[in-house]
Design brief:
By secondary structure, the protein is of the alpha/beta class. Helices cover 48% and strands 9% of the residues.
Length: 428
C-alpha cells in the first residue's frame, strides 16, 4: 500500500525549499514528497499537488502520453506562466507543465505504480480507494498493464466463480471474528463497486457486486442509519484539497437502470430461497439426486456444519468428500421423510419468519442446509443426498445471478441451465 496522502502532504510542507502558489488564485501549491525528481522533465499538477516526473517514464507505459508528447511542441507550456515561487528561485521555469483534472491522491498512486509497480492490499475499503483510483486513471490514460492488474485484484473480492465467492466469504467471516463485531464489513460498499464497474467498463465485477448488495434490506441501501454497514453521511463534502484517507465518502447512489436491476434481482433471489425450502419437502427427489451421483460426484469443495437451524448456526470449514458406495442405500425411508419434513419447518421458521442470517442469501442458505442432516442422522445415504442436492442448487443459483439482475452475457458467468425466478420485465 502506498503512503497516506495526508502524511505525504505534511512531509512535503516540512521540506519545501520554496513556497509555490498559483498567481491567478493565490492558492498555495505543494511538491509531492516522493514523486518530485530534480531531473524530471515534466511537471504534472493535480489539484494543489505538483509531481515532477520523467516524460520517458510516462511514454513508456501510457500510449495516451506517448501520443501527446509526440504531437507538437510543448515548450510553450512553461511553469513560469502558471506557478510562482516565494522565498526561493524557480529551478524549473523551462519545464513543461501539464494540468491533470484528476484527484491528486489518484494521480500519486498511478505514478507510484508506474515507477515501483502496483502494491495492492487485501481488498478492504482503504485498498479499494487506491485500486479504484489507479484503475480509473489507467483506463483514462491507456496504461493497459496497470488496468489489467487492478481488475485482476478486484476480481478476488468480486469474483465470477462460486469457488472464488466462497473464499471471499470465508475472509469476510474471519474479519468479523477478528474484529469481534457482527456484520463488520471488510469489503467496500457494493454500490461503489457497481458504479466503478460501469465507469471503467469492467462487467465481470457486476454480478457479485449486485448479489452482495441484494443481501441488504432496502432501508439499509437507500436510507441507511449510522449503524448500518452501507452508511455514508450524505452531507459530507470535503472542504480540503487533501481529505484524510479515513474520512467518510459522500453517499453513493445507483443509476435508475441499476436501481431497477437491483429490485428485480432482489425479488428473484428471495423467490429462490422460498423455492429451495419448498424443494426440500420432496425428499424422494433429493434422495434420488444423491443416489444417481453417488459414484460420480467430484465437486472439490463442500461445507460441514456442526449446528442446527434450531440453535446457533456457524460454519466450521471446508472439507472434501470421500464416501463409499455403501452409503448409497437409505436405511429408513419413513424416518428420513420425517427428517426432511422437520427440516422444511425449521428452515421456514428460521429464514422466512425469524429472518436470521441467510434469509436474503440463497447461496448461504443452501450451503447451510446441505450439512444439517449429516451430523444427526444415522442414514448416511440421505445425508449425502442432501449435500449433493445443496451443492447442485448452489451452482445453479450462482449461474442464475446475471439473469436475475439483467446483466447480459458479458459478465464471465456460465449460462444458466434453467430459470427459477418469476417472470419479470427486461430492463432496457
Amino acid at each position: 500500500m502506498y503512503p497516506s496522502f495526508q502524511s505525504s502532504m505534511h512531509s512535503n510542507q516540512d521540506n519545501n525549499p520554496a513556497t509555490l502558489f498559483d498567481p491567478q488564485t493565490g492558492v498555495e501549491l505543494h511538491r509531492h514528497p516522493d514523486l518530485w525528481f530534480d531531473d524530471g522533465s515534466v511537471i504534472c499538477r493535480a489539484e494543489f499537488i505538483l509531481f515532477r516526473i520523467h516524460i520517458s517514464q510516462l511514454c513508456r507505459h501510457s500510449s495516451f502520453f506517448r501520443d501527446m508528447f509526440s504531437i507538437g511542441d510543448h515548450s510553450h507550456s512553461v511553469l513560469g506562466s502558471s506557478i510562482h515561487s516565494k522565498g526561493g528561485p524557480n529551478d524549473f521555469e523551462n519545464c513543461p507543465l501539464i494540468e491533470l483534472h484528476d484527484k491528486a491522491e489518484d494521480v500519486g498512486n498511478l505514478f507510484a505504480a508506474l515507477y515501483d509497480g502496483p502494491h495492492f492490499g487485501n481488498n478492504d475499503q482503504d485498498d479499494f480507494r487506491v485500486v479504484s483510483g489507479v484503475l480509473r486513471l489507467a483506463t483514462k490514460y491507456l496504461v493497459d498493464h496497470l488496468r489489467e492488474k487492478a481488475i485482476a485484484h478486484l476480481n478476488i473480492a468480486w469474483p465470477s466463480t462460486l469457488k472464488g465467492w466462497d473464499a471471499r466469504e470465508d475472509l469476510a467471516r474471519a474479519y468479523e471474528i477478528e474484529t469481534g463485531t457482527s456484520g463488520a464489513r471488510l469489503y467496500p460498499s457494493p454500490l461503489a463497486v457497481i458504479n466503478l464497474a460501469r465507469e471503467v467498463d469492467v462487467l465481470t465485477l457486476l454480478p457479485s457486486a449486485f448479489f452482495d448488495l441484494s443481501r441488504y434490506t432496502y432501508s439499509q441501501i437507500f436510507d441507511p442509519c449510522i449503524q448500518d454497514p452501507l452508511y455514508y453521511p450524505s452531507n459530507h463534502i470535503s472542504q480540503s484539497p487533501s481529505p484524510s484517507p479515513t474520512s467518510p465518502t459522500p453517499s453513493i447512489c445507483l443509476s435508475l437502470s441499476d436501481t431497477q436491476r437491483l429490485s428485480l434481482g432482489k425479488e428473484a433471489s428471495q423467490y429462490a430461497i422460498t423455492s429451495l425450502i419448498q424443494s426440500m419437502s420432496n425428499s424422494q427427489s433429493i434422495r434420488n439426486c444423491g443416489l444417481q451421483s453417488a459414484f460420480s460426484l467430484t465437486h472439490p469443495l463442500t461445507h460441514s456444519y456442526t449446528s442446527s437451524l434450531s440453535g446457533s448456526m456457524h460454519q466450521s470449514g471446508h472439507y472434501h468428500h470421500h464416501r463409499s458406495s455403501s452409503s448409497a442405500i437409505c436405511i429408513s425411508a419413513a424416518a428420513c421423510r420425517k427428517d426432511f419434513s422437520e427440516l422444511v419447518d425449521l428452515a421456514t421458521k428460521h429464514y422466512l419468519f425469524d429472518r436470521e442470517r441467510g434469509y436474503s442469501d440463497p447461496l448461504y442458505m443452501a450451503d447451510e442446509i446441505g450439512g444439517l442432516k449429516s451430523e444427526a442422522s444415522e442414514c448416511k445415504a440421505c445425508a449425502r443426498s442432501l449435500e449433493t442436492w445443496a451443492m447442485r442448487e448452489r451452482e445453479r443459483v450462482w449461474r442464475l445471478i446475471p439473469t436475475w439482475f439483467r446483466l447480459g452475457s458479458d459478465t464471465g458467468f456460465a449460462s444458466p441451465e434453467r430459470t427459477s425466478s418469476p417472470p419479470v420485465p427486461v430492463v432496457e
